[in-house]
Write the structure tokens for this entry.
Amino acid sequence: MNRDESTQFEPRRRSDGAQSHRAILEEATRLATVEGIEGLSLARLADAVGMSKSGLFAHFKSKEELQLATVEAASALFAVQVTEPASQAASALERLRSLVDRYLEYLEVETFPGGCFFASALAEMDTQPGPVRDRLVAFLGDWLGQIETAVRNAQAENGIDPEEDAAQLTFEIEAALLLANAQYIVMRTQEPIERARRAISRRLASAAPRRRPRSEPARPRGK
Amino acid sequence: MNRDESTQFEPRRRSDGAQSHRAILEEATRLATVEGIEGLSLARLADAVGMSKSGLFAHFKSKEELQLATVEAASALFAVQVTEPASQAASALERLRSLVDRYLEYLEVETFPGGCFFASALAEMDTQPGPVRDRLVAFLGDWLGQIETAVRNAQAENGIDPEEDAAQLTFEIEAALLLANAQYIVMRTQEPIERARRAISRRLASAAPRRRPRSEPARPRGK
């Protein structure tokens, strides 16, 4: 991702036009997790950001264009908060743990008021064919692909048992993350976040290589 | 549940008024999983069932009343398809397995076109305070309570290790079911259903009592 196009929610020197465009999209991502991405009309967003509908029309020519730009803004933010930091990890297993930890942090800090933007938007759009659904499905495929790649690389690096079914393990990790999000939105307590952390930590411990080379020191489990 | 109030989608002799009321709610549950429970206006539903809005108004005085009646209709159907059959099981562990199997079947047979009614409706309403959200949260609490009760009873019956954290195990089972639903809606293949089945079967095998009384024959795992 080009850092200049990032939509991190922090002050940054930009031209007034760009600042305004970013501020509009920031509000759009938040609004979409509360009122739904289908509720994200130009009229509703104009009201939320205090602009005229015609002023907003200068930024986005249609509701669909606005929705797609909102998904891109949320994707850029997700990359900054979750996937980019994880890419710095020293090993594939550490990268996998980092993807999990960063995702749970992204929930905990309430990046969006209605929980994970993508879980929220896809639950809404899954039965609505079109470019917005396609983009969300592609995002989800990319996210699951990153987890599965980390699992496969960890198998190659002897951090995970090569006999584990990587796609199955990916499913089980994502399952805990998805339920953490769903329950966190309803409960607003740490409990589901901790339960997901525990479930995944335990699952990765059970997926540790059974025959570890004697030359390599064993890592403590459940770290 | 009173069977006469059941909303099973099968023909049954009823008065025309009751038939009509049931047919309206049947359509409402289906529509809610595709267009959203917030999209369930009297006007939209009247259009879907081929009635006038004023004709529908004789059945439901407000959108909220319609939404609540739709949640009740979906709850009754869920009881018939999932929880009532499971209650027939001979042991708590069998009841737990039956709740899982019946839930996955409820997804597989596409009871609702947009997947699990409750997952869909709660994902939409989780940030919308009010009686509809409250009813959905109560339903979810009841569902998780049934799973957790089956786990605790299975622990008492020595089907599950008493040292397992019942709430944690419940979280892990529900996580697999929730992701099966989310992925099934997008993929429409058996894969996520099978992955959930495998994840839960494996997890229950790992939760089997460690010290089984010698007098009791071991049950085959992964059944």
Q: What stands out?
A: The interface with chain A takes residues 33-36, 38, 113-115, 119-120, 122-124, 126-127, 137, 140, 167-168, 171-172, 174-176, 178-179, 182-183, 185-186, 192, 195-196, 198-199, 206 of chain B (CB under 8 Å). The two ends of chain B are 30 Å apart (CA to CA).
